């Protein structure tokens, strides 16, 4: 497609794009809720909560287990609970990391082809950096990426354009030369704010919305189609 002819570098989201990590996130979320004597949630529910980083995931889980925490007058109580709970969630996620996650179909082969074609590649995820590297290594895809940005690597994360602007500056690229590939509206919004092209994937985590509603440059149902758009 002509809109991708100038692309030199690609920024990939991780969760819901390259790796289905929800089973591990759900296990860690439920282990944390059990510690608090709160009701557990379902893996399907966790799928609708991910995408804005670990803290927001746990905030949504707490508000699910204790609906009163969603009320404005209980905002301070919620913040106090999060301060206590987040270290426990991070502990449990570290224990469950890589245990149940899976690489999506055609990811490894497509990344191999893109690397061989000379594209620079980066990870731009809202997952904490300390968990991003081990997850990449566990699927032997870490060597594909020259830059890895976690949700805590910079002052702001997606949907803010800062991570993508950081890549543009780091690689000295024009806006027309960078592509964002992700499954969430946060990925598309970040790309639009940075004025770069975006491919939206339909199979990931996007709060129950079709990724096409966010108006990415192109929509793909299978990761292999990303390679087809760039290499054909």
TrEMBL record:
Domain of life: Bacteria
The EC number(s) this enzyme carries: 3.1.3.18
Record's GO cellular component terms: cytosol
GO BP of this protein: carbohydrate metabolic process; DNA repair; glycolate biosynthetic process
Catalytic class of the enzyme: hydrolase
Residues annotated to bind Mg(2+): 13, 15, 183
Gene Ontology molecular functions: metal ion binding; phosphoglycolate phosphatase activity
Active site: 13 (nucleophile)
Key word Metal-binding present: yes
Cofactor: Mg(2+)
Keywords assigned by UniProt, alphabetized: Carbohydrate metabolism, Hydrolase, Magnesium, Metal-binding
Pathway: Organic acid metabolism; glycolate biosynthesis; glycolate from 2-phosphoglycolate: step 1/1
Cell wall biogenesis/degradation as UniProt keyword: no
Reactions listed under catalytic activity: 2-phosphoglycolate + H2O = glycolate + phosphate
One Pfam family here: HAD_2
Xref: InterPro entries: HAD-like_hydrolase_sf, HAD-like_sf, HAD-SF_hydro_IA, HAD_2, HAD_sf, PGP-like_dom2, PGPase_prok
Function per UniProt: Specifically catalyzes the dephosphorylation of 2-phosphoglycolate. Is involved in the dissimilation of the intracellular 2-phosphoglycolate formed during the DNA repair of 3'-phosphoglycolate ends, a major class of DNA lesions induced by oxidative stress.
Family: Belongs to the HAD-like hydrolase superfamily. CbbY/CbbZ/Gph/YieH family.
UniProt-recorded name of the protein: Phosphoglycolate phosphatase
Species in which this protein is naturally found: Shewanella maritima
